[in-house]
Amino acid sequence: MKRYVIIGNGTAAVGCIEGIRAADREGAITVVSGEARPVYSRPLISYYLEGKTDLERMKYRSDTFYADNGCQVLYGRKATEIDPAQKTVQLDDGTALAYDKLCVAAGSRSFVPPFAGLDSVKDRFTFITLDDALSLEQALGTGRDKRVLIVGAGLIGLKCAEGIIDRAKSITVCDLADRVLSSILDAECAAVVQQHLEAHGIAFMLSDTAVKFDGGCAEMKSGRNVEFDVLVLAVGVRANTELVKAAGGSVNRGIIVNEKLETDLPDVYAAGDCTEGFDASLGDRRVLAILPNAYAQGQTAGTNMAGGDKVLDNAIPMNSIGFFRLHMMTAGSYTGEMTETRNGQTLRRFFVKDGLLKGFMLIGDTVRAGIYTSLIRDRIPLETLEFGPAAHEATSAMYTRETRRKKYGGVV
Amino acid sequence: MKRVYVNEEWCLGCHLCEYNCAFANSGLEDMVLALKGRKIFPRIHVEGDDRITFAVSCRHCTDPLCVKSCIAGAISKRDGVVKIDRTKCVGCLTCVLVCPYGALAPGEDGIMQKCELCLENSCGAPACVTGCPNKAIVYEERGGAE
């Protein structure tokens, strides 16, 4: 009987468990869970504060998931060391777990720059875990009287802002970048989104960031001072690579994995936000810290750990996100020739290179966007279809009749 | 596993399937009450241009991307049917971003909905199929197309 150990208990771990169990009902699975709770949907923490979900509905899997899959979960335990020679994982309670196959699904953590005076801020939070959200909820209280400063205008910072808008007196978001969502939007798309957020009461200080804190006052790079009651630090995240690095495995910005999700340590796999995998749109490695990728990587790792032979070679960056009913989707890499259509708040930009769709940004009109995503992911030569993406919305009418027969006419 | 297929050569582009779908999933017994004067949010939709039309609904994929990608864990596949737990969905539309078939769309409330083959509404069999005047939409067992 194989012994599987999974470090981490998030989405990638679930994918791994389901991947293993599809092939091996017998092996023993032990999950090392740093958080003292069953798996939940991390991207939902802002929706929780917004009141769009609750702790019960945030459960990513049913209450019987671990029992149904024969998993032992060690809650509140952390792995401290991997010994690839002995094939053991040391835990923080002094015990050790022996493995035949190990998956490191250790996720990422908030990156907090060493701000001067940060310790003088009483109510300061990061925004990644459910515990972060619950602490923030408590600090905001019900008086709607707190001024909130959010450092970081990325996905995490802005989702947080939207989530707490009805619980805060005011929200100011600052970022060193010159635009919002700088990792996924270009300047013009970002301007549309920023305007929309401002119309809903969020104030921005861009190309500017806090350099020093003194209690409830942030001194900005520009020299301005911002007074606040609650501080949210959403500067960025860092992959948890330390365990694999210390064990002698290759890491860069994430743990290096191949398309089978193997690290270069024998019988050690890695999946999810802690990894740096292959981005099919870029043709190079990149940390793809998004939930769909975490699941797909975990499932692929699990399948292979159980003796299967599965590759994941079509992962791409992608995001679907909305703020105050303005929805946007982005995917791939923004390289090559750009075409666009624009109509008020609706802005669609497509990037084509070497006859392939490489990426897109869609603001406002996202209908059937997955058809575009599949063109990037599957590297479909555009000459094989009638591709006029900028002109009209996504439709499978762009395929030839034969392609459509294959895609829609049988079991897929 | 039976699925809904469309023979596009026979599709008239009449959109009746969309109305039958919306009615079947309305929970109402009176078609007029369910549809008249209302914007409908069907789970099947007719696409195409001036040359060709065809209806598209969920393919109930063997290895569904929507299930793996749902950030709320709201989509699952059971007994061959891809289903969505609408109480868990937060309307992030990630499933729309990943579905290669363009088969998912939000309902009137912004929460996602999708074809579940009418197995759990009062029809018991796909209403788009029963109501298709030219029998372009069929519910049958097929192998892979390739």
What features would you highlight for this structure?
A: 412 residues; alpha/beta; FAD/NAD(P)-binding domain; Enolase-like, domain 1; 3 domains; five-stranded parallel β-sheet; 23% helix; B: 146 residues; alpha+beta; two-stranded antiparallel sheet; two-stranded antiparallel ribbon; 5 helices; 19% helix; 21% strand; globular
Description:
The complex is a heterodimer of chains A (412) and B (146). With 412 residues, chain A is an alpha/beta fold. Chain A folds into 3 domains: 3-108 and 238-305, FAD/NAD(P)-binding domain (3-Layer(bba) Sandwich), CATH 3.50.50; 118-235, 3-Layer(bba) Sandwich (FAD/NAD(P)-binding domain); 325-408, 2-Layer Sandwich (Enolase-like, domain 1). Chain A has helices at residues 11-23, 45-50, 65-68, 130-140, 155-164, 187-199, 242-246, 291-305, 370-377, 401-408; strands at residues 3-7, 28-33, 71-75, 79-83, 88-91, 96-98, 101-104, 108-110, 124-125, 147-151, 170-175, 202-206, 210-214, 217-220, 225-227, 230-233, 237-239, 255-256, 268-270, 275-279, 284-286, 318-323, 326-332, 337-343, 346-353, 356-363. Chain B is α+β, with helices and mostly antiparallel strands and 146 residues long. Chain B has a domain at 2-57 and 115-139: 2-Layer Sandwich (Alpha-Beta Plaits). Chain B is globular and about 40 Å long. At the A-B interface, helix 8, strand 22, strand 23, helix 9 and helix 10 of A face strand 1, helix 3 and helix 4 of B.
Task: Detail the topology: elements first, then pairings.
The complex is a heterodimer of chains A (412) and B (146).
Chain A: E1 3-7, H1 11-23, E2 28-33, H2 45-50, H3 65-68, E3 71-75, E4 79-83, E5 88-91, E6 96-98, E7 101-104, E8 108-110, E9 124-125, H4 130-140, E10 147-151, H5 155-164, E11 170-175, H6 187-199, E12 202-206, E13 210-214, E14 217-220, E15 225-227, E16 230-233, E17 237-239, H7 242-246, E18 255-256, E19 268-270, E20 275-279, E21 284-286, H8 291-305, E22 318-323, E23 326-332, E24 337-343, E25 346-353, E26 356-363, H9 370-377, H10 401-408
Parallel strand pairs in A: 1-2, 1-7, 2-3, 7-19, 9-16, 10-11, 10-16, 11-12, 18-20
Antiparallel strand pairs in A: 4-5, 5-6, 8-17, 13-14, 14-15, 20-21, 22-23, 23-26, 24-25, 25-26
Helix pairs in contact in A: 1-8
Chain B: E1 2-6, H1 16-24, H2 31-35, E2 45-48, E3 53-56, H3 65-69, E4 75-78, E5 81-84, H4 94-98, E6 105-106, E7 112-113, H5 127-130, E8 137-141
Antiparallel strand pairs in B: 1-8, 2-3, 4-5, 6-7
